[in-house]
Amino acid sequence: MKTKLLIALLLGSFQLAGQTLYDLRWTSEGIDYAGFMIYFNEDDIYMRVGYSYDGGYNLVHSEYHYDQTQRQDGFVVFEGLETGYVYYQTDTLYEPFHIFWAMDDNNQWTGPYALDDYHLQNDNFDEIADVKLTEINPANLTAEYLQWFYTQEDEDYYTLLEAAKPQTIQQPTANTSASAPTLHYIMIANTLISDIGTSTNADIHNTSSEFEGIASVLQMHFNKIVISDKNFSKDQVVSTLQNFQPGPNDVVIVIYSGHGFRFSDQTERFPELDFRYSDYQEFSPQNCMNLVDINQMIQQKGARLTLIIGDCCNSDIGVSKKFGTTFLAARSTVNASLPKLAKLFLETSGNIIAAGSSEGEYSYCNVTGGFFTNNLIASLREEVSVFREEDEPKWEDILSKAKESTLKMSKMGCPECLAQNPI
Length: 423
Description:
about 30% strand, alpha+beta, 2 domains, five-stranded parallel β-sheet
């Protein structure tokens, strides 16, 4: 049952990505292999593999790519790439193993399986091995376990040990309970519209839980404002924002999830937001406003950091937000570094505005939420990972990665999808 559940999570639908740790065990040609994999995203994966051979222990490091392009042929593959020995005692001929899932005659995913590159290149499939794959909670990592996969000269060894420890941050002296900054979360979502209501409801759940969790660990106050259902209107949005008053050290995050469009003679690159939740509502200037208008209203409030996101189409009026299929991705936990979160939410100032699509483009979604919204959260999680020791977290890097992932996702999300380039 657990194996089937993990396969479903890995192959069935989008999960908010961050980074995931896996333990893999398999036997090939009489040799027992143990793998420790760290998955950041489909292009950033590595696995350490340890094995005993002829009386000695050998340890290799392999880079991996998560290849989804063969799904229509019934395969999904963790493709083994560059490989080198960390150290060896009795073997120097290791070939990277490819880890894959296959669809059976009943259209059910089976696996994972392992096959090394040598046998794959020689079309020898008799050596395919079953793999036991287990997700690892970083809190359960121990020095004894990690020493099978790392030497004490490896920086990642100490990074992973630190990840297993409870984290604390040093709050600024002024941040008493009364004066701590507030993270204001304002969600504007068209939940009643028939075609995308399921997706926008998912966006509310995903983003609300994400930012409330961040506020909690950073000891910030959290102010949640949701404009949805029959309150979803331009008048309600304008009234709410006019009466909204953040403090000068506060963070304001506004997310719009719904339909969007642009007029044929429009010069502003950001989309118009459509506040109709029924096809029978008349289109008029009272039912739309530009994302830039919201940004300007929020900027005038004087908060330290503002983030304005519009996950909607930016195409000619009358074109609906598009639904894509579910797609392959890895399940993950957050594993966030509190100092990195503090850098982004407590120490950064500025204004950010972004939209899920460029002029003339659709914005895709599915039952798990908008592609851009989900990728924004995934990119945030990756940027603040405890395993990303080398880089200082930056909002521009988060947005850049979210845009890149959304573009890639729009190309594979459904057969008829056109490219979606967030701005």
